Amino acid sequence: MMRTFVIGALLALGGAGLAQAGELRPLSAQKLCLSLEDSTGAKPDGVPLVLKPCNGGPEQQFRKGLQDTLGVEERCVQMAGQPKAGQSTGGPPLVVGTCTGAFGQRWGISLDGRFVGQNFQCVQVQGKGQAGDAVAMADCRKRPDEVANQRWAVYGKL
Q1: pLDDT by residue (tens digit) across 58-75?
Q2: What is the pTM of this model?
Q3: What is the rounded distance in angstroms from the CA atom of residue 26 to the CA atom of residue 15?
Q4: Which domains, and CATH codes, for the chain?
């Protein structure tokens, strides 16, 4: 039986290492998981993250690492480019890269279930929460009716 944890409850984990993994599901589309776009073969730097139907595969198992990194398949989640202040949609997409602990690979977790990167940008589903939708950075929304595509749940443990 899978248990759902809102990401905000994970703040106490800090730098918990890479031992446990969990699926990241947008609250707006909980049958979909954050996933590597290409789940076959080698995972070079730059492979994008997208939404896919949850399958429990390694391409959907995320781990919290040291220095507040977030890893999948021995790579770290990072922004492909720099976010711009005031960018509400269409910011830099999320990709994977070699884990270095660089600023663009560090993630904070808000109490309401949002991943926050540099320049106070949040991870946001681009689109309507359908399979294949990209995930990118955008300004963290403030109004409750605007945050649905920025809130995430963890199935498993980070």
Answers
A1: 999 999 998 899 999 989
A2: 0.81
A3: 23
A4: 4-156 (2.80.10.50)
Secondary structure of residue 39 in the 3-state scheme: coil
Asked whether the beta carbons of 62 and 84 are under 8 A apart, the reply is: no
As a whole number of angstroms, the distance between CA 35 and CA 50 comes to 5
- Among 54, 14, 7, smallest CA distance to 30 is for 54
| pLDDT tens figures, 26-48 | 998 999 999 998 766 666 889 99
Can you give the C-alpha Rg of the chain in angstroms?
Answer: 14
CA 123 to each of CA 40, 41, 109: distance values in angstroms, whole numbers, following the listed order: 24, 26, 10
- Residue 81 — φ and ψ, nearest 5°? 115, 180
For residue 6, what is the DSSP state?
Answer: E
Q: How far apart are CA 51 and CA 31, in angstroms?
A: 10
